[in-house]
Design brief:
D-Maltodextrin-Binding Protein, domain 2; about 20% strand; 15 helices; alpha/beta
Length: about 325
């Protein structure tokens, strides 16, 4: 299998098929906080995208002149679809989903990196069934992996992990599964391994469904942003000051969340419908407080190398600021 055989060369009219596929879970618009125009934000009830919820409940969005109205969806692809349809203004998705859209001429741009991942807070994201016979990467030959979205950052990190461990990429298979279903699918034997993030990983551990197997994110680089806030170029052009206020609010929220684990954990527990005591045991992520290109450039280059982008996407195209 060549590095380019994952590329999808489709016309712009079909580009949305690469990033669509999610569905609404629930709508939770925040109570209007200011007289400023509403910013309709799409988020996912996971630790990595918690800033939207933390910023509302802490009052940081309001203090920065952002009248945030948060809607919860279940995938980044669903959020991208809603933003492009005009149902949302700003959303969160992983870098590959955003970059694939940009590569196909869809006018998206990143506003700010969200959660960061590094060795200091590593929480192995590649998991197998608790009773799985897999003990080393070589056992993954021929396995089926569950990922939240096909052709996304998680799949990219898995390809890098397989290469690093000399597992032939052409021998494995990928299926799309929401994080909430990975634990049960592993326990049933539907998949052999999967990518899980918090709080779903802690829930699956508590249910006796999974155990840690490996860390795919750190295969890419020592510190990385697996998820980003984004919008459309048109929204930025129409709302340049509001876009900058949103970015300021996100970074202010990041600083708050990075030093208020208990308070942010209580918010996450409510959003994810988990016991706060269980959330308190989770290995939590931390958030970017600036838009450093080092979080992004290698990911974009690697995605093109593996054929997950039909053309190279530069940081200048990817980032609005």
């Amino acid at each position: 299998m060549t590095d380019q055989n994952l590329a999808r060369r489709v016309p712009r009219s079909a580009a949305l098929a690469l990033i669509a596929g999610g569905a609404f879970v629930a709508a939770r618009p925040a109570v209007a906080q200011t007289s400023a125009p509403a910013v309709r934000i799409g988020s996912i009830p996971i630790d990595a995208s918690g800033e939207s919820y933390y910023g509302v409940e802490s009052g940081i969005f309001a203090a920065n002149g952002v009248n945030a109205q948060v809607t919860t969806l279940n995938t980044g692809s669903a959020i991208i679809t809603a933003v492009l349809a005009g149902d949302l203004d700003v959303g969160i998705a992983n870098p590959l989903q955003i970059a694939v859209a940009i590569a196909h001429g869809v006018p998206l741009q990143m506003l700010a990196p969200a959660a960061l991942y590094s060795l200091r807070d590593a929480n192995p994201n590649l998991v197998v069934a608790k009773s799985s016979p897999f003990t080393s990467p070589k056992d993954l030959v021929g396995a089926t992996f569950g990922v939240s979205s096909l052709s996304d950052f998680n799949q990219l990190s898995l390809l890098a992990y397989l290469d690093a461990n000399k597992v032939p990429r052409e021998s494995v298979h990928f299926v799309e599964l929401p994080f909430s279903e990975v634990g049960a699918a592993l326990a049933r034997g539907t998949i052999g391994a999967g990518i899980l993030t918090e709080p779903f990983k802690t829930q699956a551990v508590a249910a006796g469904q999974i155990r840690d197997f490996g860390d795919t994110y750190l295969t890419i680089q020592p510190e990385i942003a697996p998820i980003y806030w984004f919008t459309t170029k048109g929204w930025i052009q129409k709302n340049p000051d509001l876009a900058k206020r949103f970015v300021s609010a996100i970074f202010a929220t990041a600083r708050w969340a990075n030093s208020h684990y208990k308070e942010s954990g209580d918010i996450l527990a409510r959003v994810a419908k988990m016991d706060p005591a269980v959330v308190a045991t989770m290995k939590r992520l931390y958030f970017a407080t600036s838009n450093d290109r080092k979080y992004t450039e290698h990911t974009l280059a690697l995605a093109y190398q593996y054929g997950m982008l039909p053309r190279a996407v530069t940081f200048g195209e990817f980032s609005a600021f």
